């Protein structure tokens, strides 16, 4: 009797692990810190990670150990993105470290954080094709593959990566990771044409490498709606279709310059501003979110001042991340109340120079786009020495234009008597009918070159608050609040902020509304309200008939 045959057990085959490694850094040269740029309310690198992991696959954001990438790593962690940190210059070494725990047969997907369109379904299809071709490497290579530039990723096994690293190492491969893998794969290493599209789409561009790319892609994701889950194919169809932005905030053109209908006010960044402010100054993370939301929302200008605590200093640090963006900065000369009326011209000029120099230093700019007189009276003291000195700064390029921040129509009229004043900032809201008087309106009509910014649209938040938040002496608060609620219902507005903004935006001579916020969420809500229709002429007239006996003291927060 022979020996029995050994019992045959079925072979256990385990599917290889798949790890998507998202390569990112903040020290890019063409568009510095682009991985931090806000797209759909989150940093670009975070959005890429969320989209790549949309089908449940493991995603690791691989960045460097340099201090320049500390914020990127922190923001990724805040959004529950797994982080690996390694060499900045030797990216291959970073990939080897990030995949050291994988087996040789496990699969690595390489993606970069300047390409937000690829998603989990795109990666799944790429892995299926990789399994089919049985090559050590498969990657996208536009235009050869017919794909849009930026709709890309690469797939290879961890073992192939290690073999390539052993066989060939030089500075170019250390930086670009896969050149030797591509050579090993030969012609089989490129995604076949027509694998994703029946027609050639290589003329399309969906990467972020320049400012123009960024603006196009943020607009694309706004149109898509759910940025984290919008299918990659839907995004490509949208980018190929004629662009239409019905939800973007309005812009006005004055003297060939575009001004968004919202200006971000930054007093809240530098001090506990506003009578209804209960949370204080935003912390650094929230401040970054506010400026990011402004950039993403199409805001073209910021308003700040020397007198706003350390607002200029904080803005300079924030804007350092997005140099050359074309976001105009308006600041204000410090009030020169410490100078006597008989101060020598040289002393006045020195004070103006010092204020301008400190603004440039803190904002980290060689040029301030607009410098306003924070205190209108300073324009006319000392024989106009301060105004003359600011004009000299315009001539030498340190300042782009001069403006004035005023409190009353009388101050505005006096300011406009000087043709050098190109911009005006006025307090205007639905309680304040002073600016509709004929004299001021005639002066504005005579200056079509004038840019007018409306501040105090919410009257430091009072118009959005219950009567108990108003000053104790404001005995008319209950009636005024009741009237505001009635107008909201009558005009079918969304809320008090919508009513207030709709009123001021109804006047075509207003270029922009200066709005300060305490959070990025607040700003995004205001940007959304700025896309609604302004009040009609009949509705603005009804507002005027409603608020006819508002105490003058209530219109000027300085008197509170």
Report on the structure:
The chain has 21 helices and 18 strands. The longest helix is centred in the middle third of the chain and has 19 residues. Helix content is 37%, strand content 15%. Helix 8 packs across helix 9 and helix 12 crosses helix 13. The protein has 560 residues and is α/β, with parallel strands linked by helices. An eight-stranded parallel beta barrel has the order 11-12-13-14-15-16-17-18, surrounded by five helices. The protein has a six-stranded mixed sheet with strand order 5-4-1-6-8-7.
Overall helicity: 25-40%
Unreliable spans: 1-13, 242-246
Query: Tally the helices: what do you get?
Result: 21
Question: Biggest β-sheet, characterized?
Answer: 8 strands, parallel, barrel
End-to-end Cα distance, whole Å, is 110 Å
**Order of adjacent strands in the largest pleated sheet:** 11-12-13-14-15-16-17-18
Structural class: alpha/beta
What is the number of strand segments? 18
3D shape:
elongated
- How large is the share of residues in beta strands? 15-25%
Mean pLDDT across all residues, rounded? 90
Radius of gyration: 29 Å
